From TrEMBL:
GO molecular function annotation: serine-type endopeptidase activity; signal peptidase activity
Phylogenetic classification of the source organism: Bacteria, Bacillati, Bacillota, Clostridia, Lachnospirales
Signal peptide start and end residues: none
Family in the record: Belongs to the peptidase S26 family.
Source organism (scientific name): Clostridium scindens (strain JCM 10418 / VPI 12708)
Alphabetical list of InterPro entries matching this protein: LexA/Signal_pep-like_sf (IPR036286), Pept_S26A_signal_pept_1 (IPR000223), Peptidase_S26 (IPR019533)
Catalytic activity line of the entry: Cleavage of hydrophobic, N-terminal signal or leader sequences from secreted and periplasmic proteins
Main location: membrane
Short name of one Pfam family: Peptidase_S26
Name recorded for this polypeptide: Signal peptidase I
Gene: lepB
SUPFAM superfamilies recorded: LexA/Signal peptidase (SSF51306)
Alphabetic keyword roster: Hydrolase, Membrane, Protease, Transmembrane, Transmembrane helix
């Protein structure tokens, strides 16, 4: 049993106990808020968004080695030039969609890329040469994409591993956090 402090009035005892209960309630509220935020963060980054680190310079200069890529998982209808993250043979690859299902891809000796007879280029400063393994013109199967890295002369992309099924696409890159060379 607790000894009563003879000098405390009943009002002081009530106030002290009330403050103790209020302080305990504040701690419990804080713990619930922290738990809620942790669960919300877990849900958002396991179901809606993702973070991955770029390995290599396949997408140089847009994405450099070591950059963090934040992506959106819920988008499933990708268009040409979207930058996506996918899994191929257990490895994560980041690349730009050059062609989608039913498109025809052609590469010639001069480094020119054609999709459905139209020359592609835009902001890509490196020529696009065909690599051994695929025969051109290449018809992209429905439900698959043809992925190219921006650093065309050194990128490991669909020219190496073929077309990528849409089920292997993790999501669309929405922002990049530079880790070096700011």
């Amino acid at each position: 049993m607790q000894q009563k402090n003879q000098s405390e009035t009943p009002e002081q005892v009530i106030r002290r106990r009330r403050n103790s209960v209020l302080e305990r309630k504040e701690w419990i509220r804080l713990l619930f808020r922290i738990l809620f935020l942790a669960l919300l963060g877990w849900f958002l980054f396991s179901k809606v968004f993702f973070i991955t680190q770029a390995k290599g310079n396949d997408m140089f200069p847009a994405i450099k080695d070591g950059d963090l890529v934040i992506g959106f998982r819920l988008q499933k209808d990708y268009v040409k030039d979207d930058v996506v993250v996918c899994m191929v043979d257990g490895n994560t690859h980041i690349g730009r969609i050059a062609a989608r299902g039913s498109d025809r891809v052609m590469m010639d000796e001069s480094g020119e890329l054609q999709v459905n007879g139209t020359t592609q280029g835009g902001e890509i400063m490196y020529p696009t040469y065909a690599k051994d393994g695929l025969k051109y013109p290449l018809e992209i199967p429905e439900g698959e994409i043809f992925l190219l890295g921006d650093y065309r002369t050194r990128a490991k992309d669909s020219r190496d591993f073929g077309t990528v099924p849409m089920k292997d696409v993790k999501g669309k890159a929405i922002t990049i956090l530079r880790r070096q060379g700011l």
